[in-house]
Amino acid sequence: MENPELAVSSCSTHDDGSLRSYKRHSSVCQEGLLEDQLRRKLKFFFMNPCEKFWARGRKPWKLGIQLLKIAMVTVQLVIFGLTNQMVVAFKEENTVAFKHLFLKGYMDRMDDTYAVYTQTDVYDQIFFAINQYLQLPNISVGNHAYEKRGAEETALAVCQQFYKRGTICPGNDTFDIDPEIVTDCLYIEPMMSSDNTTVGKHNLNFTLDFHRLVAVQLMFNLKAINLQTVRHHELPDCYDFTLTIVFDNKAHSGRIKISLDNNIAIRECKDWHVSGSIQKNTHYMMIFDAFVVLICLASLILCTRSVVKGIWLQREFVSFFLYYYKKEVSFSDQMEFVNGWYILIVISDVLTIVGSTLKMEIQAKSLTSYDVCSILLGTSTMLVWLGVIRYLGFFQKYNVRISWDLRAVASHPNTASSITQCDEVLLLRCYDLPGLLFLWMDCTGTIPCEVSLSEHGFRMPFFIDQWR
Amino acid sequence: MENPELAVSSCSTHDDGSLRSYKRHSSVCQEGLLEDQLRRKLKFFFMNPCEKFWARGRKPWKLGIQLLKIAMVTVQLVIFGLTNQMVVAFKEENTVAFKHLFLKGYMDRMDDTYAVYTQTDVYDQIFFAINQYLQLPNISVGNHAYEKRGAEETALAVCQQFYKRGTICPGNDTFDIDPEIVTDCLYIEPMMSSDNTTVGKHNLNFTLDFHRLVAVQLMFNLKAINLQTVRHHELPDCYDFTLTIVFDNKAHSGRIKISLDNNIAIRECKDWHVSGSIQKNTHYMMIFDAFVVLICLASLILCTRSVVKGIWLQREFVSFFLYYYKKEVSFSDQMEFVNGWYILIVISDVLTIVGSTLKMEIQAKSLTSYDVCSILLGTSTMLVWLGVIRYLGFFQKYNVRISWDLRAVASHPNTASSITQCDEVLLLRCYDLPGLLFLWMDCTGTIPCEVSLSEHGFRMPFFIDQWR
Amino acid sequence: MENPELAVSSCSTHDDGSLRSYKRHSSVCQEGLLEDQLRRKLKFFFMNPCEKFWARGRKPWKLGIQLLKIAMVTVQLVIFGLTNQMVVAFKEENTVAFKHLFLKGYMDRMDDTYAVYTQTDVYDQIFFAINQYLQLPNISVGNHAYEKRGAEETALAVCQQFYKRGTICPGNDTFDIDPEIVTDCLYIEPMMSSDNTTVGKHNLNFTLDFHRLVAVQLMFNLKAINLQTVRHHELPDCYDFTLTIVFDNKAHSGRIKISLDNNIAIRECKDWHVSGSIQKNTHYMMIFDAFVVLICLASLILCTRSVVKGIWLQREFVSFFLYYYKKEVSFSDQMEFVNGWYILIVISDVLTIVGSTLKMEIQAKSLTSYDVCSILLGTSTMLVWLGVIRYLGFFQKYNVRISWDLRAVASHPNTASSITQCDEVLLLRCYDLPGLLFLWMDCTGTIPCEVSLSEHGFRMPFFIDQWR
Amino acid sequence: MENPELAVSSCSTHDDGSLRSYKRHSSVCQEGLLEDQLRRKLKFFFMNPCEKFWARGRKPWKLGIQLLKIAMVTVQLVIFGLTNQMVVAFKEENTVAFKHLFLKGYMDRMDDTYAVYTQTDVYDQIFFAINQYLQLPNISVGNHAYEKRGAEETALAVCQQFYKRGTICPGNDTFDIDPEIVTDCLYIEPMMSSDNTTVGKHNLNFTLDFHRLVAVQLMFNLKAINLQTVRHHELPDCYDFTLTIVFDNKAHSGRIKISLDNNIAIRECKDWHVSGSIQKNTHYMMIFDAFVVLICLASLILCTRSVVKGIWLQREFVSFFLYYYKKEVSFSDQMEFVNGWYILIVISDVLTIVGSTLKMEIQAKSLTSYDVCSILLGTSTMLVWLGVIRYLGFFQKYNVRISWDLRAVASHPNTASSITQCDEVLLLRCYDLPGLLFLWMDCTGTIPCEVSLSEHGFRMPFFIDQWR
């Protein structure tokens, strides 16, 4: 009787009726006192925070912690989203820049039709890419540099794959082929000398046998530093780009598709020095993250306690029912005692704690796993919102308004562009569709009270009504 | 009893029933005469113009004024929309022309992908823009001229922003940076001499350190006169364009986005002379605007009077109720006496008066604030339509038809292109959505009469029915 | 009683009930015999062809004529559509060809953004168009030729419109303008000499004052013969193209929009000679058209007779009603006797007769008004289909299927491209929408029988039921 | 009584009711025993496999075979789809490559606007295509070769079609034409000599009279081998391309549309040699196909037997009914005994057997009719899925889920691109629409049980209920 928990009893007008029916019932069977005690325990257990406060004056601590958490977690996600957006934008813009630098005649939005059809065009494209690579420091407007292995810079590899043996005579409908594929590579090192001699057919021993050719691959590594974070008082990251330009002749259809693939790795910079106030700002942010972790730990402990108490009450009720009525309580009725939303909040708290720790590591530049962190924080924020929506579910009409506000928050133009936010918006939209449907049905009065509750609260109050 | 005002009593079939219930009621309580007097006062107060005419022969002056006002305000808005459209089109076409003049290789509909990727392209773009600026009078087909400060023409400013100190070596993963940004500007004055020497790297001391570069900005001012209004018998305006071409290298991603921003100010021309009939036409238009202001003043006074009378009747009713029944009248019942639509009409009238005054000033070329005027006139016209829709609300079925006609008016092709009209159409569409929903619910018969009234009339007639 | 006409009595199960009510009625009032006679007359009048055949063995001649007419009119429209399509395609392709020939750098689908922004571009465009015009016979791949006035060929007119007086100094915010527009033209005649000297600034005295310039217009006439009809065994038409290239500088915004307007007139060729079988084919087609005219005349006469008889019966009924019951027959009840669908068929027949006569004239090459003919034939075919749908309306369930088949016919890919067919399909779609809505309501059973009839048959059988 | 077959009796709760009604019925009429026997026979006949197992322990062999068949047929279709996709992609890519090789200035996605407008452009295009053809072996990146007739290579044919006689003077509105079309061809053989002399107006006697010209056609044959199948361990096919470039001047509108038509024939290669493991893989695949044929034969025999038994039972029932009740059994009731789904399965089995045989022939490279095979296998797989859906129809709620899974299978990205799969997905979508509508109606409870059955099972159980 001391620790009853959160419950839903929004159809309070039904209480009088069920009370009366209960009175009639109790006059028939005389288990009386113990049943009445358990009944009141259950009633309190299934109350919402508001009713608990009115009934016994219990202050809604848990509700307060959830509200504080939701505010902090959302702020944290928006801040991380803004940082992550810079990372995503830097990746995308570099890929676009590489396409314009290394693909001859490339224009925006023609990736799917970018192909060459004649032998001279293939040589032109290859030599164009090689020359652009050799002159990169004089051409590029970004901070691109060759990767260094020790003292010398890594070379560009021009690899051609061809069938080992092949005599193909389509004119006679005959061919003699060995489908084994041989790869032959040529390495071209960035010339340190300042002479502007371009590479071409005349000074590079490179010929292609188009009848046997399967693919040509140009592979090289570039490095860059994402400086723009400096202006947002964060430390820059170092990027490794592994670029692969593929001339795909697998089909031998007369069309060689050209694609540029940019494999990006983010690493901490080795040796850096920045003047000014970046350090301090990072410290403040870390303190905020640590506070989020503490709040989540508190919420985690309180919700776990509620779940445990629910299970205890369930056992007590099952044994009472078996003893007095000689009846098993059905599994679905037993599940009424386990509040699915508490479990959701627990999961969300765990995700937030892990995500916040990761975020602190990223800010300290000891880790660069932006994607994992954004998935963790994004998922946890979504769950915490869903959890609070349920927690506030005793004012059913507020539900939809909250979910709309949520969407407004989530569709913030800057944050929505980063990956996590997109996911979240999608998930919210999924949630909204049944929500709106539900609202519509509620308005037209076609659904009874019970379904309405179960829709929002994941529960069938059929069994509860019997006991009120 | 002499001045009862507009009301809604569309469910007239309920009257008989409530009358009977009233008779039974009056037999029980003997307050009799005074109550009956107040009851009739209230009934008359909540009548609509049509019923008032049938009941006591009161001619619907206010309705007439509203109908006249709606016609005149709409005509006024359409006329202003046509003028404003020329202003908007002139602004947009100039911006497009500047993009084609100052951005090398610019084509329509490529604003979002317009960028350069190599160092030589950056220099080319900058020198192209400078040369085009220097030769503008010989190139442009419009009436573009340099801005003059006193006798000499203003210069073009080429400003580069870069990090104060920066040694960035992505190859070694090291950097040493001072995030403070330094701006360095170069001013190029339009050469008055007729020699066609172009500016380039050879004769201009201008180099960029791309590793440290954050942005390059080209800023210059141009002036123009919107002559086409002359042909519509209106006086031309003078325009100041503050152009900024930004080469954005914030991200250092190898992609420098180029954007042209055109900041437009409209000013009265200082010294002008036009032959012919422009002046007369402006006079006629001003007389029309003045008449609109007079009509709106009349409507404003009549509606304010009605609101005041409503508040007096409310006080009388509250004191009567408290004296005889010893009961407080609830706040929501008290609000029944304040007709929200009168307040809407009052707001709309104030906006129209201010807007029309502004329009007269614009026509007299003493002001050029087209945007503010279009917002004022557009909003007021929308409100006046909403108000009249309500005013005519006693024929509920006409509501939707009117709102459809409204939309037809608002979507007039010429006027819809100007900003205000767009706003209006959007707002009307917002209004239409609940309207259509409401119509649908009305047809299916799922909503009772009271809700229907409150939806349209902002009122709950629950309390009224008791008294009829 | 001898000539009862087409009627609708689809609710035949109601007959027994109304018969019984009639019997009770006749026992009360003793007008007896005359009323009974009129009643049977009316009943027969409102029968459908099928019921008339069962009742008195009257063969449905009119139904047969309608069915024959619908088949012939549709065949006629499809044949005319195929001819008309060639005309429309020739017009469109010529316009596209002229744009490519006379507009420098024109590409497909850029009409709305085709503009120039510099003074040299304006001169280039003008001289390009002039040179292309002068060399047209050597350039064009079509049968284009200059128009001849007597012996010599018509000249190209280069007209510039400018403000009469204008001193515009945007730099000082001053202008002095006379808004009167002066037009100044220059005529360039096609050179018959074979020298390929191009026209340009050097040998043509043509300068533009861009500050005052309002528009430049290049106007010239070309002629062509649509030869492809020869291959479809039809006689070719001669085409006059009046081309106007407008350089629009009205706004003085720095952007001169260029548009090419092609005004097309179709005329009979003066003097032609074609070898082979074209003449015979035209004769057969004319015989078919004449037969359509005959059928439509028959249908016209029969339907007019029915309408006249309906009006006679109406008068008889009104006078009977006035005499025996002393009651006026309401206007809506009187309108029951005028079958709206007969009137529709009459209109359709008149249109077909006029359209077919026009078609014969076009085939004989004494007229070239393709557009008027297509509107006449298209509208009449649509009406005849609607009329027959109604005529067959006694099997209500067939209605929708017929309209679907109709749409399948109308959306025939070849014919749908010509103007008329498009109109028809649009109109059919308009008809279909209520049709489908009606079907849906019919299925769900929400509409009573009477409304269903009136929807399809344009009549309220409320009054008829009383009399059956 | 020994061989009753599959039936639907999903409304099992109705059984008790109908049993009771039957008892009352049997007390009235005394045909008793024989009727009871037939009744039980019928009841067993209309049972589903599950009920048969519970009733008499009959194991659902047929159901097992169908489930095995559906798995194997789907796997087979997916494998064939992947092979077929390579064929389709090779065809499409070759066509794209030819357009880029032989059409001057061709760019992707401009097929509908690709046209020339001047005489020089027409000559340029023709000579460009001829030169590209002559130099093809040095230009093409694919395995393209000239077709050989004996020792020498086939020539490119340049054919121009023109009116036999034509004097067209649009300037005078006169023409004298003979619509007979003459075709004049010029043959250009690939030069074996290595000299790179290009063909042009100077060395080729080729002129066009544009006034009379109807069309120019360039026709030539090329051959290629689809090598990429080698990498998927399948044998390559040889392809014959018959290319036709058409310059269409039929309309004489000044616009000559250019289109390239590629007619593709797949043939077995004559003489080939491939090193490695291709042969083995083909053998395994053939064994799988043979097994599919066996399974389908078994299913075919079992279903045919069931259909035959249904017809026997129908005859027995008809004669019993005629003898005892002196009543004819209506045709629709008789059709109850013929299970439409069995016939569907039989058709599907026949198609699978033919398709699998064809597939084996294709794999053995003795046939190349990919299209026919894909239509056969695709249709049969669709039918087998529909059949099994029906077979599992006794769990009605599973229907929709199955059809969704089906769609997931069918919309597999790789296979969906081949022609057959597209058809199938379309058909499935057609099936799904009523399915979803039905599901929705089922949920809302607006349709009675009988309609539900007939919708899914193609039967009206009205008659059956009488007998239960």
Instruction: Quickly count the domains of chain A.
Output: 3
**Oligomeric form of this entry?**
homotetramer
Large-scale geometry of chain A: elongated
Distance between the termini of chain A: 16 Å
Write the H/E string of chain A, N to C.
HHHHEHHEEEEEEEEEHHHHHHHHH
Which radius of gyration of chain A do the C-alpha atoms yield? Answer: 33 Å
Q: What's the number of extended β-strand segments of chain A?
A: 10
Low-confidence stretches of chain A: 1-24, 394-468
Most extensive interface, chain pair and sizes: A-B, 46 and 36 residues
Q: What is the helical fraction of chain A, as a range of percent?
A: 40-55%
Helix and strand content put the structural class of chain A at alpha+beta
What is the overall pLDDT average of chain A? 74
Helical segment count of chain A: 15
Main sheet overview of chain A? 7 strands, antiparallel
Strand content of chain A: 15-25%
Describe what you observe in this structure:
Chain A is built from 15 helices and 10 strands. Chain A has 468 residues and is of the alpha+beta class. Chain A has 3 domains: 170 residues, no CATH class; 165 residues, no CATH class; 64 residues, no CATH class. In chain A, a hairpin with a 2-residue loop joins strand 3 and strand 4. The longest helix of chain A has 48 residues. Chain A starts with 12 loop residues before the first helix and ends with a helix. The interface between A and B is large, with 46 and 36 residues.
